[in-house]
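for the record, two folds in this file. i put them one after another cuz i was lazy. first one right below, seq on top, structure tokens after. the second one comes after a little note so u can tell where it starts
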Amino acid sequence: MNRKKVAYIRTLFLFIVLAVLNHCSASPEIKQPGNNTTRAPSIVTVEIVQMKFKPEVLYVNKGDSVVFINKDMVDHDVTDEPGGSWTSTTLNPGQSWGKTITRNEDYFCSLHVIMKGKIRLENQ
């Protein structure tokens, strides 16, 4: 192969790689109600460790997802407070459960009622 063809193929390959990387890093844009800015929903983690939800109070945007991960040595769950209108399954150590947030939420572990947490919307 001559040098011009090799240079052309290298340039084309680099262009394709850069285009793919640019496409993969682009986030979909979503309009937030009452807000002219756009952003993709986030996934935020709450760890269950040492009989506590960490962080105890979590600030997110409407539409974000929260994933609860049980990193404790015993089973836990995540249940709406008051009323229990939603609840996770029992989370064995190492298991996780997620929820999309649409409003402020207070929650607790129904297996260990002293464990409590809050999720608050930043932009209402």
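(here's the note) second protein begins now
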Amino acid sequence: MIPKQSIDELIYRSCMRLDAKDFSGFLALCDPGFRYRVTAFSPEIRKEMIWLEHDKAGLKLLFDNLPRHNSDHSPITRHVTVYTVERDGDDGNARVVSGLQVYRTTLDGGETTLYAVGKLHDIVKVDGATPLLVDRSVRLDTRMLGIGYHIPF
């Protein structure tokens, strides 16, 4: 059985790879059937909004096309704290909930601000030699992100 520490480290490594813009390294931590989405609840329309949804191939395409986007190149840093890890005996997966804070540092002056807050809801495959991400749902509390940033959280 894969220890909880290995699951925690997978979550932390996934954020470190995205911080470093090591997109192939991030995707290597993901199962072939990986799904990714970013959601937020809108009190104005009283509905869940899906801001981004991709499978592993769709994320790879997004990452490959990032140089073509006119986007904000300010680095962001993800700070994650794993809250809970619950193992499902039937499907060989663990469900992980983590707190997420995303900080943005401007290129022109080095000012760092809190950019977004939310939670990561991950499903981790734990029936192999190493844990792999099967599903990541980023549930944001922050809804005002501005424009021009295309890298997933």
